[in-house]
């Protein structure tokens, strides 16, 4: 969907140069609205328990029938590390806590998609699919995954989860300067 009207005042938008890039901007005098683009941010969980990785089978498109790691899109007023804890619980019934950020996928297109993968520590629960987004859930070994319809990107993420070097980016819970409402991660 293309945006044609200002989201602030409703006036028509026109394309103009904003810092060297053509962008849609408001035509109304006194309104400074610029449409910076369409973006989505997704998160994914890599929960490992006893050398097995938590996977869910997609019950809806995109990816219906494929096994993937649990995940989803962030909500407007939700920190990304809260999103992934919620998504793992909703999709698979598993309690897990964030250990670190271990991978990022950047996929520019009409809606620029960024995906952040978290290594998570298993806390408790047994895999139970939500019955809406996913129709099956469980912990699987690499050998078991060989006979499963695992999505290609998930295969890459499983490799990251099981063979990663270093700790990844970890949450900075006590930064030298407080930034209320921010999620901060550092090496």
UniProtKB/TrEMBL annotation:
Keywords: Hydrolase
Matches recorded under InterPro entries: NUDIX_hydrolase-like_dom_sf (IPR015797), NUDIX_hydrolase_CS (IPR020084), NUDIX_hydrolase_dom (IPR000086)
Organism for this UniProt entry: Paenibacillus taihuensis
Pfam family, one: NUDIX
Gene3D superfamilies: Nucleoside Triphosphate Pyrophosphohydrolase
Domain Nudix hydrolase: 38-163
Protein name: ADP-ribose pyrophosphatase YjhB (NUDIX family)
An MF annotation (GO) of this entry: hydrolase activity
Domain of life per record: Bacteria
């Amino acid at each position: 969907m293309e945006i044609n009207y200002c989201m602030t005042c409703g006036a028509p938008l026109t394309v103009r140069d904003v810092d060297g890039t053509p962008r849609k901007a408001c035509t109304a005098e006194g309104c400074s609205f610029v449409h910076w683009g369409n973006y989505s941010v997704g998160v994914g969980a890599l929960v490992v328990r006893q050398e097995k990785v938590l996977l869910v089978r997609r019950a809806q498109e995109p990816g219906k029938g494929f096994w993937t790691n649990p995940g989803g899109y962030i909500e407007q007023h939700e920190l990304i590390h809260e999103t992934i804890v919620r998504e793992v619980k909703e999709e698979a019934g598993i309690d897990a806590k964030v250990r670190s950020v271990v991978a990022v996928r950047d996929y520019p297109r009409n809606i620029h998609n960024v995906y952040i993968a978290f290594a998570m520590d298993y806390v408790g629960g047994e895999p139970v699919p939500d019955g809406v987004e996913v129709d099956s859930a469980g912990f699987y070994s690499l050998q078991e995954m060989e006979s499963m319809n695992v999505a290609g990107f998930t295969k890459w993420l499983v490799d990251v989860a099981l063979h990663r070097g270093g700790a990844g980016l970890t949450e900075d819970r006590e930064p030298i300067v407080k930034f209320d409402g921010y999620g901060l991660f550092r090496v």
